[in-house]
Amino acid sequence: MRVIAIKPLREFWEQNHDAETALRAWVAEATNSHWQKPSDIKKKFGSVSIIANNRAIFNISGNKYRLVVAIKYDFQLIYIRFIGTHKQYDKINAKEI
């Protein structure tokens, strides 16, 4: 998979240093994966939530942060849509972001 726009993740971990290791590990895992369908993601990330519009929500740093991505399986692309705290996450619509 190719992760589009890692810059938001980098900016986030520069402000939230405790998220850096987990986000770097997520990027490494995602870029070395070849997900074809949501169940492929579930095999590796059991706590991931799969929602409408090909969105996946990952718990980061022991569920301290949320990462929302949009996935284009046929093109092997992952688009970063949101990274933030649970409080920030509660203010977005993950299906539309």
Main attributes of the structure:
97 residues; alpha+beta; YaeB-like fold; 5-stranded mixed β-sheet; 4 helices; 5 strands
What does it look like?
- The protein has helices at residues 7-15, 20-31, 38-44, 86-89, and strands at residues 2-4, 49-51, 55-60, 65-72, 77-85.
- It has one domain (2-88): YaeB-like fold (2-Layer Sandwich).
- Strands 1-5-4-3-2 form a five-stranded mixed sheet.
- The mean pLDDT is 96.
- A hairpin with a 4-residue loop joins strand 3 (55-60) and strand 4 (65-72).
- The chain is globular.
- The chain is α+β, with helices and mostly antiparallel strands and 97 residues long.
Overall shape: globular
Helix and strand composition category: alpha+beta
- N-end to C-end Cα span: 20 Å
The DSSP helix count reads: 4
In short:
Helices cover 33% and strands 30% of the residues. It has 97 residues and is an alpha+beta fold. The protein has a single domain (2-88), classed as YaeB-like fold (2-Layer Sandwich), CATH 3.30.2310.
List the helices and strands and how they pair.
Elements lengths: L1 E3 L2 H9 L4 H12 L6 H7 L4 E3 L3 E6 L4 E8 L4 E9 H4 L8
